[in-house]
Amino acid sequence: MASRASGLIGKIDVAERRAIALAVVFVAATLAMIGYANWGMGITLPSCVPQDKLFQHGSIAKHGDKHYEVQFLAKMWGFEPSRVKVPVGSTVEILLASKDVTHGFQILGTNVNLMAVPGSVTPSHIHFDKPGVYSIVCHEYCGAAHESMNGVFEVSADTTDISAEGLASDDAGRKVLDEKGCLACHSLDGTAGVGPSFKGMWGQTAQLVNGSTRKVDAAFLREMILHPSQNTIKGFDPVMPELPVSNDEIKLIQQYLEALK
Ligand code: CUA
């Protein structure tokens, strides 16, 4: 058996033997480079996770002295959290996921440049050794309000610990807005979107496209949700869909909007 095999190799042309040896060397070199990138340089690819196991909200956590973790949830059209404050000298582990479509995540002026891919978690980390305001932008076109999809890292010597804004609270009304998809078009911080921002809306007088004016109160909110096309606010397109929202849910939204003003 062995003599037959060695006899066969003996018959292979010298040039062929060199080609085989070269191929083996290239494959080994490629594997070595992939291994070095992974274990030596710590470059990791997004890891796939079942969608229902993915984190559904952003969060912040403290691992140690000036060592933090931020889970960013990218979604149409913002990041959760939207603003993170950390002390100078902080190292922040970043975990990025998407709630809907593919988004970009670039911290301007640094080499953190990631993609938020649905169904996967993209890890990275950053060390802030200089104070400043670092903008986070979505650099992957993701729909109507892509341009306004951004966030901020605020790094300051006056800050003693991590804090964040724009995290989902356990607020029931906010949860309804989130689940019904309202927040895709209506921001909570005053930024203009496809529809008017919810911030400061409560109690205001709204000009409608049909020429009438309405005070934004419980009665108007109800009509607005149930018959959006008849209650379009001036300056916006009549694109709000009729959604199945129960009376209880409208009540929760009302409480939330009242508190948000
Ligand atoms: Cu998200 Cu562009």
Question: Explain this structure to me?
Answer:
The chain has helices at 2-11, 14-40, 172-179, 218-226, 247-260; strands spanning 47-48, 59-64, 67-75, 78-80, 83-87, 90-98, 103-107, 113-116, 120-128, 132-137, 150-156, 163-165, 205-207, 213-215. With 261 residues, the chain is an alpha+beta fold. Strands 1, 2, 3, 4, 6 and 9 form a 6-stranded mixed sheet that branches. β3 (67-75) and β4 form a beta hairpin. It is elongated. The N and C termini lie far apart (86 Å). The chain binds dinuclear copper ion. Dinuclear copper ion is lined by residues 77, 103, 138, 140-142, 146, 149. Dinuclear copper ion binds at residues 77, 103, 138, 140-142, 146, 149.
Topology:
Elements: H1 2-11, H2 14-40, E1 47-48, E2 59-64, E3 67-75, E4 78-80, E5 83-87, E6 90-98, E7 103-107, E8 113-116, E9 120-128, E10 132-137, E11 150-156, E12 163-165, H3 172-179, E13 205-207, E14 213-215, H4 218-226, H5 247-260
Parallel strand pairs: 3-6, 5-11
Antiparallel strand pairs: 1-9, 2-3, 3-4, 5-12, 6-9, 7-8, 7-10, 10-11, 13-14
Helix pairs in contact: 3-5, 4-5
The chain binds dinuclear copper ion (CUA).
Dinuclear copper ion binds at residues 77, 103, 138, 140-142, 146, 149.
